[in-house]
Amino acid sequence: MAAEKILTSPIGSPSRDKELDQFLPIANVSWIMKKSLPTNAKISKEAKETVQTCISEFISFITGEASDKCQREEEDDQRRRSSMGYENPGV
């Protein structure tokens, strides 16, 4: 699991910093989870880490899909301008 790798990586190492950038802060995940549950509910560390991983994977997936769509639309716009005789403005 990626969370275990983070915990065992040396502090300050480039790989640890990069991995931490890929996850939402666990405190934020915990806060959102607590808001959604009854006040007396307990949340295990493993549950928080699992939700953190799932949320981060979901955001990564959505971001990738949005990036792909933007790329396709840019190519479509360029093709449309070209077919209408417009030159690329040098952007």
Give the termini distance in whole angstroms: 43 Å
Number of helices: 4
Strand content of the residues, in percent? under 5%
- Rg from C-alpha positions? 21 Å
Task: Bin the helical content.
Answer: over 70%
Write up this protein.
With 91 residues, this protein is an all-alpha fold. The protein has a domain at 44-84. 71% of the residues lie in helices and 0% in strands. It contains four helices and no strands. The protein has helices spanning 2-8, 14-21, 26-36, 45-83. The protein is rod-shaped, with a radius of gyration of 21 Å. The relative contact order is 0.09.
Topology:
Elements: H1 2-8, H2 14-21, H3 26-36, H4 45-83
Helix pairs in contact: 3-4
Give a short overview.
With 91 residues, the chain is mainly alpha-helical.
Task: Supply the key terms.
single chain, 91 residues, mainly alpha, 71% helix, rod-shaped, disordered N terminus, transcription regulation
